[in-house]
Amino acid sequence: MYFKFTFCPIILLLWASLSFAQNVNVVIHGAASIAKTDDNFVCVTLDWWPAEKCDYNQCPWGKAGILNLDLRYGALINAIKAFNPLRIKVGGCLSMERWDQLNRFFNHTGVKLTFGLNALFGRNESQTEKGLWIGDWQPQNTKDFMQYTISKGYKVDSYEFGNQLSGSGMGAKVDAKQYGKDVIVLKNLVKELYAHPETQPKVLGPGGFYEEKWFNTFLEVSGQGIVDGLTHHIYNLGPGDDPNMMNKILDPL
User: Fold this and answer.
1) Number of domains the chain contains
2) Which of 4, 56, 87, 131 is the most exposed place for a label (fewest CB within 10 A)?
C-alpha cells in the first residue's frame, strides 16, 4: 500500500486565501446551552457493498464491505480501539463462519455491537400497493441466530428491527401498526432467550426515515417498555450527486 500526495495546489490555495484574508472579531454568547452531544455519539455501520459497487461515476468501496473486510488490518484495529468503545452496526445475511470471525474482531477491539435484524422475514409483498410488505413477521430465523450467538458467548448490545421500513420506506415498507405488533414479538423473544435482565440486549427501531404519523402509530401500538431506543435516519446533505453538496458542507446554515 502506498500513498501519493500533491502539495502544490494546496499551497496555492492557502496563499490565495491569505491574500484576501480580513481581520474579524467573533463574539460568542455562551449563556445558554443549545444542545448536548452524548460522549458515545459517534457510531459506525459496516456496509455490504462489494468492490464493484459504483455510484455517481465512482467505485469507492474496494474491500471495505463487511464480507471482504480485512479484520487483521492494524490501522483499522487501532482506530476502533481508540474510541473505547465504538458502537458498530452490522446486519444482513452472514455465514456463521463470518459471524464467528467478526465477533473475534469485536471482542478484540472492544466494540459495542448493534445488530440489524431482518424484519421482512415471513412477509409477502402486497399485490395492490407497491413496496408494502404485509403479514406477520416470522421470528424463527432470528431465534435460531440468537440461540447460536448466545451459545458462543457473543455479546450484542442491541438488536435493531429492520432497516428503512418506516413511513414510505426505502424500497420496502411495513405498516406502522403491523411493525408495532411485531416489535412486541421481538421484545418477548429477547426476554425469553436472554434470561437475566442485566444482560438482555436492547431493542431498537425502526431505523428509517421519520414520518410523524407513522412513528406515533408505531409507538402507540407497541406501548411502554418495548422499544429501548428510537432510531431514525437523516441525510442532511442529500444524495452524493447533489450539485450543491459542497455548499451544504461549507455553509450548512
Assistant:
1) 1
2) 4
CB atoms within 10 A of CB 84: 8
Residue 218, domain member (yes or no): yes
> Which amino acid would we find at residue 177?
K
Which comes out higher in pLDDT, residue 185 or 235? 185
* Domain CATH number, residue 90: 3.20.20.80
DSSP, residue by residue, 125-192: E-SSSTTEEESPPP-HHHHHHHHHHHHTT---SEEEE-SS-STT-SS-EE-HHHHHHHHHHHHHHHHH
Return the pLDDT at 10: 40
Q: Which three cell numbers stand for residue 69?
A: 473486510
Q: Which domain covers residue 170, as residue numbers?
A: 39-250
Q: What is the pTM for the complete model shown?
A: 0.80
pLDDT digits (tens, 9 = 90+) for 27-40: 777 777 767 777 77
Asked whether 43 and 89 are in contact (CB, 8 A), the reply is yes
CA distances to 54, 97, 110 from 93, in Å: 21, 12, 23
